[in-house]
Amino acid sequence: MRVLMILMMLSSHPPLVADRPQAWTRAKITLERTTCFGTCPAYTVTVDETGRVDYEGSRFVRVSGRRTALIDRASVSGLVAEVVRSGFFELEDGYDRNITDLPTTYVTVEIDGRKKRVRDYAGAPKVLRDLEQEIDRVTNSRRWVSLDPEALIEKQRSTSPFDKRALTVELAGALRRGHLDTAAALIAAGADVSSDVIFSARTAAAVQLLVRSGAKVGVRNHAWRTPLMEAVTVGDAGLVRALLAAGADPREKDRDGHAVLDFATAADLGCLSQAEIFVRFPGFSSISDRVVTADDCRTVADVIRTASAKGGGDSELRTEVQSSEFQVPSYLIFSPRSVFRLMIAATAPLAPRTNWIRSMSPSQ
After folding, report:
1. Would residue 234 count as lying in a domain?
2. Are residues 174 and 277 in the same domain?
3. Do 212 and 184 reside in the same domain of the chain?
4. Does one domain contain both 203 and 112?
5. Rounded Cα distance, 213 and 244, in Å
6. Alpha carbons 317 and 150: distance in angstroms, whole number
7. Domain membership flag for residue 7
8. Residues 130 and 158 grouped into a single domain
9. Which of the 8 DSSP states describes residue 101?
10. 353 lies in which domain range?
């Protein structure tokens, strides 16, 4: 009898298994995002088994208050299937790290009486982060949180459409968020691509869209830096390639005389402490005891200048690095995100070493 009772209890909430279709009748999935120390959007969006979407925006969203919409049942079924595939009910109840000022995301799922809520502050697994984005996508929360093409059309047909300046501000936001469909619609509506909006591009595709629409890659920002300088500062080789292909001039300098390769040296090598190197390059388990200092940064830059002046390729550059007096680890140059070779290929000049690069070191 006792065994029978246990079996009955287990069968009341059968496990959701990822490798076969799931039969369910009732479902409710909720995504809640909170503010951060900044302007992170705060809102809640819920979708149930009927396809009803309930949204409530509180802070830093385009639409505050409540809105409702309806999506098709197939989309809800797909979202439930994604929940199952993610192993949501087996995740931890919360993910945290000793970091401050970040937004918090809560995901709550109810399927046929089984309920779980997961808190994501920092350090959550990719499956959970992907699920959060999928909830946003399926419910199309973007139409209220920021902007989507349909919402833009509605806005421009209203009695208070965006003017050119507002369109350009919205374009910068869409580019930062990676919403290229909205960006294209904003450009078509009259956003100004001749401004410094290209600095908001985060991907090669965004650069290509802007350039096709007439944007110039040689514009300067308030610090008199070019988009190429900013791209190498964050170490994004794909963005660098796109800007170079669009005609960005690697010989340009900022108002202090720093060339593009200076930014590449400081960003990609990063003047990182040894602990930070372990974080960025986890595949390397036998790093020397030496801490990477600003002197190392200068040494690597000088080695690169010497090798590139000889007109050598990758093998010659690697040989030059390995024969360097300071024996700087070669992976600091040949890392996956390296932009050094791109700059060398574009014949970027190397400005003299100054105390500026020392100021970039977090160890100083």
Report:
1. yes
2. no
3. yes
4. no
5. 17
6. 51
7. no
8. no
9. S
10. 260-359
For residues 288 and 187, membership in a common domain is answered with no
DSSP string, 52-63: EEEEEEEESSSS
Per-residue pLDDT of the chain (364 residues), as tens digits, is 554 554 454 445 555 544 445 688 999 999 999 999 888 999 999 999 999 999 999 999 999 999 999 999 999 999 999 999 999 999 999 999 888 889 999 999 999 999 999 999 998 999 999 999 999 999 999 999 999 999 999 999 999 999 999 999 999 999 998 899 999 999 999 999 998 999 999 999 999 999 999 999 999 998 889 998 888 776 666 787 788 888 888 778 888 887 776 665 544 444 333 333 333 334 433 333 333 444 444 444 444 455 445 544 445 544 544 444 433 344 344 333 344 444 444 433 333 333 323 333 333 3
- What's the gap between Cα 249 and its chain centre? 26
Length of the chain, in residues: 364
Q: Would you say residue 251 lies in a domain?
A: no
**How far is it, in rounded angstroms, from Cα 277 to Cα 291?**
9
Taking the C-alpha atoms of residue 355 and residue 338, their distance in angstroms, rounded to an integer, is 23
Is 253 a domain residue?
A: no
Tokens, residue 321: 């690095």
Annotate 273-288 with b (16+ C-beta within 10 A) or e (fewer).
eeeebeeebeeeeeee
Q: What is the CATH number of the domain that holds 229?
A: 1.25.40.20
DSSP annotation of 352 reads P
Give the C-alpha separation, 16 to 88, whole Å: 10
- CATH number, domain of 34, equals 3.30.1560.10
Residue 292 contacts by C-beta under 8 Å, 6 or more apart in sequence? Answer: 269, 270, 271, 272, 273, 274, 277, 332
Can you give the pTM of this predicted structure?
0.62
List the strands of the sheet with 42-48, edge to edge: 65-70, 52-59, 42-48, 27-33, 105-111, 114-120, 94-95
Nearest of 148, 208, 219 to residue 177 by alpha carbon: 148
Nearest to 216 by CA among 236, 232, 193, 239: 193
Phi, psi (degrees; rounded to nearest 5) at 230: -65, -35
